[in-house]
Design goal:
CATH class: Mainly Beta
CATH architecture: Sandwich
Strand content: 15-25%
Oligomer: single chain
CATH topology: Jelly Rolls
Number of helices: 6
Shape: globular
Order of helices and strands: HHEHEEHHEEEEEEEEEEH
Structural class: alpha+beta
Helix content: 25-40%
CATH superfamily: q2cbj1_9rhob like domain
Radius of gyration: 18 Å
Largest sheet: 13 strands, antiparallel
Low-confidence stretches: none
Mean pLDDT: 94
Distance between the termini: 27 Å
Length: 275
């Protein structure tokens, strides 16, 4: 099965249309907190297995390891199997973007051809993401980040393996909602000033693989939204970690008030000319 991004987008769009009523209801029921929904069995399993087998090895990715996060990412798509780039950009098909505009009630949504903070992610044993808010804007700080698309492709992934998405609609002092990183599941989550989310620690010797995209808009989802850098917190029982990460976020915010686009270019951007 050899498909390009147009073919893959056809399949995604067809599946989304099948679930449009459920998707719309799910988003509307959650939109005043952290709007989200998920769609299972997004693509034919044969294709998803091919995508998964094409993921790079861990030593071919960029390791991000700190108190904030521990994961592997890959964004320079032309260094990897062509099917991965086709799968990533299939989610940027205009029909799919327009679908989300309709079901989420937005006037404008734009995909990100630069894959700023998007692309591929792999989380191996003991990898995690602490609770955080995504950066509020695109790489040039012109558009607002409004939706996070996560497509999970690891076969036979169970909840007990860890590596699951967690959203905190009522803040970090209340119980989180866990969304399993189930094989062939697409999760879409709104991003705004209250979209705290995290990924639980992976507990087995396997890598959980994910395709990521972000959508942006000329307007934030809520009038109360304001600019912020990616801001991490500790989990409820991590008091020392939480204190340190709040200082870290405050320091980076102060820097961005002086240097609007940061003091260095974010390397997590797809640059085709680099190859």
């Amino acid at each position: 099965m050899k498909l390009n991004r147009q073919d893959i987008a056809d399949l995604i769009y067809k599946r989304l249309k099948e679930e449009q009523e459920v998707i719309t209801k799910s988003y509307q029921n959650s939109m005043m907190e952290i709007g989200y929904f998920f769609v299972d069995n997004l693509l034919p399993e044969e294709l998803v297995h091919k995508i998964h087998k094409s993921f790079p090895k861990l030593d071919e990715t960029v390791l991000k390891k700190s108190m904030r996060e521990y994961k592997h990412v890959a964004v320079q798509m032309n260094n990897y199997s062509p099917i991965l780039e086709e799968a990533v950009y299939a989610f940027q098909d205009q029909r799919i973007v327009d679908f989300f505009k309709e079901v989420c009630g937005q006037d404008s949504i734009f995909p990100d051809k630069n894959l700023y903070a998007g692309g591929l992610s792999m989380m191996a044993e003991n990898n995690f993401l602490n609770p955080h808010l995504d950066n509020s804007h695109d790489k040039d700080r012109n558009l607002w980040r409004v939706f996070n698309l996560l497509y999970y492709v690891t076969p036979e992934w169970q909840r007990e393996n860890g590596g699951n998405l967690e959203i905190w609609p009522n803040g970090l002092n209340q119980e989180q909602i866990t969304i399993d990183s189930k094989f062939n599941r697409l999760v879409v989550m709104a991003t705004h000033n209250r979209s705290w989310h995290s990924v639980s620690k992976v507990r087995i010797d396997r890598a959980r693989c994910c395709i990521s995209n972000y959508y942006f808009s000329e307007q934030p989802l809520f009038e109360s939204d304001s600019f912020h850098v990616t801001s991490f917190r500790g989990r409820p029982k991590q008091r020392v970690t939480d204190f340190i990460l709040q200082i870290d976020s405050s320091f980076r915010m102060a820097l961005r008030k002086v240097f609007k686009k940061g003091i260095r270019e974010n390397p997590h951007v797809y640059k085709k000319e680099d190859k």
